[in-house]
Task: structure prediction
Amino acid sequence: MDEALPQVDKGVETMGDSDDEQCGIQHPRCYHNTVTPLLTEERMRRKLQFFFMNPIEKWQAKSRFPYKFVVQVIKIILVTMQLCLFAYSRYNHINYTWDNKIAFSHLFLKDWDATREANSYPPSIGPLAVYKEGDFYDTINYAYEGYTKVEQAVGSYSYANEDDSPRDMILCLYQYKEGIIYGYNESYVFNSEIIENCTNIPQIHIGPLLDSKQFLFNNNLTVNFSAFVRAELTFSLKTVNFKAASRISAPNCYKFDITIYFDNEDQDGQILVGLDAEPVRLTCKGDTTYIKHDDISLILRSLLNYTVIITCIISLILCTRAVWRAQQLKRITIIFFEQHFEKTLNANDRSKFLNLWYIMIIVNDLLIIMGSSIKEQIEREEFTNDEWNICSLFLGVGNMLVWFGVLRYVGFFKTYNVVILTLQKAAPQVVRFLFCTLLIYAGFTFCGWLILGPYHLKFRSISTTSECLFSLINGDDMFATFSIMSTKSKLLWWFSRIYLYSFISLYIYVILSLFIAVIMDAYETIKLYYKEGFPKSDLEVFIGETNGEEVSSGIFRSSSCESLGGLIKDLCCCCPRIHKSYKTLTQRNTSTSNVDPLRSSI
Result:
């Protein structure tokens, strides 16, 4: 799991490090009061050579089973299996709730039409809205009538009470405290404080039909449309979903909290009407023949969730331990170079001790642990739509990073490592290049949003403007972007042409070409390095080179604390305490007579 720099100095002595020396490096509190310095140049070189080996070379060097690699292989299998099962369940859940929302729209929204159910671009139909006071009251009456006749629906919907009696619908009105308009002489009376008034609509007293205008008047509520901001009509229904049932899973029970909203915040002569249905999963009390099978399904899902969590915790501990020990070795190496060569490791050499692959694995472990915990809660208790989305976010991003981690092992092969090295080489130039192009992009975005927003569908908000420009860079929907520009203003129509032609020409013909050139330059440099050799830093010169025979010769084998037993020592602090400092480790052994290539170059 360490970065692949398989380099060993050919003059390495064949005697392995003692157990005390190994524990002295990995456990700073485990040094013994010995007179002989623990690290000579050759032993320091050997430790660095082993640190930069890949897992296969480490296996050959010390005959140590690559347990971190095996944990990652097991994790990717389990996490992918978990994601596939959850994705299937989530698709069924989201599809089921969306279809029910469409059914509720037909049952409770006046003038709802099937053409509104399909998203088309550009939109072929306007928003559902009311334009007259009578239409506002008629929409409430229509929803109430649909609620009282819910048994006529094709779907098996029931009222929320346990005895199947209808709960009261709740109507909430939000209005400005004062809002009177005298348009004929351009005057008004206004108080921006919003007052909320809610009332229950009891079906048992009203009957099958509702006159909402008269009902509000009887309850001392009036709707002043000049001051009207919004209104919400809420009620609940229960149902059972048989579709998810199988041999090992029982039907699911739901309660839908339905809200019909009237939005007049823009005060533009139309009150937008919409419907939301929030699903809540309930514990079913159904046919007892499903209880045994449902228990089996629950046990299997929970077993998978807990196995994933345990595997990720093990992976998290191993990778965190590896990162910590790498930082310990970095500090020792820095002191060693200062004492032996009177040189300080540069930032590039220091960064080689921070394995970003480990950091990515730690991040995806945390995400998968949190996502699996939420998934287990979803499958055992009541849940809402937001919990599904949060869980899918954690599991999806975590699984993506797990698969990205496979690139690390692919990178051990020379042919496939070119991609990773090219991205690493080009990264600084790409960041600087993107920063400059981002400034140009931001200028075009704000300009298009301000000037074309009122006249062009794709420029009505800052986000849609940015999305439109990014699509144009990739050659998507160009003609539609030109053609749907409004002709209300000839000046702005001509400006839109100049604006779009300039942006497309600049980004497609100039900036994208330069961006590709930056990547290709890095690629050619990496190819040249493969032919003529990679430039070596002070640390790499000190480490030297090795070959397969030296790796498997046994010079790296010892009963060190780097084995699985070392992990137990790390966790339990089993080594005896001592008080030697890091400087003791870096003292020169006066008996060492080997000449180091780095020393001779200083």
Notes: The two ends are 33 Å apart (CA to CA).
